[in-house]
Design brief:
This protein is α+β, with helices and mostly antiparallel strands. The chain has seven helices and 14 strands. The chain starts with a helix and ends in a 7-residue tail after the last helix.
Length: 261
């Protein structure tokens, strides 16, 4: 099975899983690490569906997933990195801004990925070296400077130690850009950058399942993704800072006070 076939398997599984999200009712949230870190039965059901379908498509595949502590070897020959519902708090609160994010990797290299927003019926896809797409049409990052773009960001809600730095940098980004948006889904924020809707995205702590597919989309759309200090993003279980953007907006952000540290 080639990478394009694997991407097709991912998108088919995501579309099937999207039906669970759209039909959800009686949603009950359980706390994990804290009151902002929640999980629902739908997160688990979506993840179970995705792993079942992708195991059928790629026998012997391994998985690195947000829920149920399934963290297989990241250097596996066939690995899927899954966030079953990115934006769970949005999902619980019925804000209708959540997505399914899946990346396929081999020996530590991201080869393809897909992010599906079931509410907007938007499917973002990318294969390494072949560009990024929204519902089959090519997308590209915004080439404008930071001053002419929006900035999307996350507040690292599971890392309370990051609050002060987050809001200090948010103010500086606000003053340097058109405006700030905080929408509650890191994967969709990265898709906004890839599609040129926002010039840059940042967050002070983010997990691999949140950014594995989204950063590939940004890169394939002509953008840049690193830690906030400009160093490479890790491919591990740490929770690094992240900065993604079109080339000009990314460079401008790095020149902000505290945007390079």
């Amino acid at each position: 099975m080639n990478v394009s076939d694997i991407l097709n398997a991912i998108t088919a599984a995501e579309r099937e899983a999207a039906a669970l999200i759209l039909q959800a009712h009686g949603i009950l949230a359980e706390c994990k690490s804290g009151h902002r870190d929640v999980v629902t039965e739908y997160d688990r059901r979506v993840q179970e569906l995705l792993t079942a379908r992708l195991s059928q498509a790629v026998p012997g595949a391994r998985f690195f997933c947000e829920e149920n502590d399934r963290h297989d070897d990241l250097n596996a020959e066939h690995l899927f990195i899954i966030d079953p519902i990115d934006g769970t708090m949005n999902f619980v609160r019925r804000l209708n801004h959540s997505c399914i994010s899946v990346a396929y990797c081999s020996r530590g290299e991201r080869l393809c990925g897909a992010v599906l927003n079931p509410y907007a019926e938007e499917l973002f896809t990318a294969v390494r070296g072949e560009g990024a797409f929204l519902n089959g049409k090519p997308i590209h990052v915004d080439e404008a400077p930071l001053s002419e773009t929006l900035v999307v960001c996350g507040t690292a809600p599971y890392s309370p130690e990051a609050v002060t730095d987050t809001f200090r940098l948010m103010e500086k980004a606000y003053r340097a850009s058109l405006d700030i948006r905080r929408q509650g889904s890191a994967a969709l924020d990265l898709c906004s950058v890839a599609a040129g809707r926002a010039g840059a995205y940042f967050e002070m702590a983010l997990s691999l399942w949140d950014y594995a597919a989204g950063t590939l989309l940004v890169e394939e759309a002509g953008g840049i993704c690193t830690r906030i200090d400009g160093s490479p993003l890790p491919f591990d279980a740490s929770r690094p800072t992240i900065l993604a953007g079109g080339p000009a907006a990314y460079a401008d952000f790095r020149r902000l006070p505290e945007g390079n540290s």
